Amino acid sequence: MAKNLLSKINEQTANFSKGQRLIAHFITEHYDKAAFMTASKLGTTVGVSESTVVRFATELGYDGYPKMQKAMQEMVRDKLTSVQRIEVTKNLIGNENILETVLNQDIEKIRRTIEETSKEDFDNAVKAISKAKTIYIFAVRSSAALASFLGYYYSLIFENVKVISTYGETEIYENLFRITSDDVFIGISFPRYSNAAIKAMNFAHRRGAKVIALTDSMVSPLVAMSDYVLIAKSDMASVVDSLVAPLSMINALIVATVINLDEKVKNIFDNLENIWEEYDVYQNDGEETSD
pTM value? Predict the structure, then answer.
């Protein structure tokens, strides 16, 4: 199996000069950005010369910077296979404190999410959701958990919410065939991007619905079909998908929706509290429990 760029960097880190280490660190953490930078721009960003960037590409075995850039762009589009992700994770973490390392990486993803998400798109997405006739939420595989979480809370707030987590094209279109320009479609997908999500978003877009993408990058294939894009950084190279930042984005969506609807939501939850109390849904403070 051909070695991917991150593996090559990890294998040769010990031989890098100070400038090359700066390039390597930036590519490892932000290759989705570096993939579309010129050698000059990348050098300026990390504080080295353009020639240092070109030599870095050559030392990694690429026939010039354009070849290395292409490798980064392929990683953005296709990301890593499961086997490659395991390999890179072992190289990045090794025998270090895994708990501390993973939590710090997730903190960094949330920080980058704050920096990169469009506040204007976020506000417009909340407005579109608040006035939608029906809200469709689509996600599959590990992202399905995000759709389920968002769907749970939106189902308490709104009357018409449909969560779709199927791969079958027939089932997808059967769930979406009533979608119109009065509706909102929220598509959630992170690397490796789901073809089912892309097809579903395209269908919703063609039907005139407001389409919101929750994804990791502006080069995500979901962006082209979207009216509003919510960027939430996911794990670039790990054994499992990091959904910490996407879940934080969903929390923000729910909170913003509640604030936007204000009195309407207060009345809904006032009624729900009465029902929960009447049917003993939650444990009351001081109530004894039996084994």
Answer: 0.74
List per-residue pLDDT tens for the chain, 291 residues long. 345 788 889 888 888 999 999 999 999 888 877 887 899 999 999 999 999 999 999 999 999 999 898 888 777 655 666 666 666 666 566 666 778 888 888 898 899 899 889 999 999 999 999 999 999 999 998 899 999 999 999 999 999 999 999 988 899 999 999 999 999 999 999 887 889 999 999 999 999 999 999 998 887 889 999 999 999 988 655 567 789 999 999 999 999 999 999 888 889 888 888 988 888 888 876 555 544
Element counts in the chain: helices (H) and strands (E): 13, 5
CA distance 182 to 209: 6
Quote the strand ranges of 126-201, DSSP E: 135-138, 161-164, 184-188
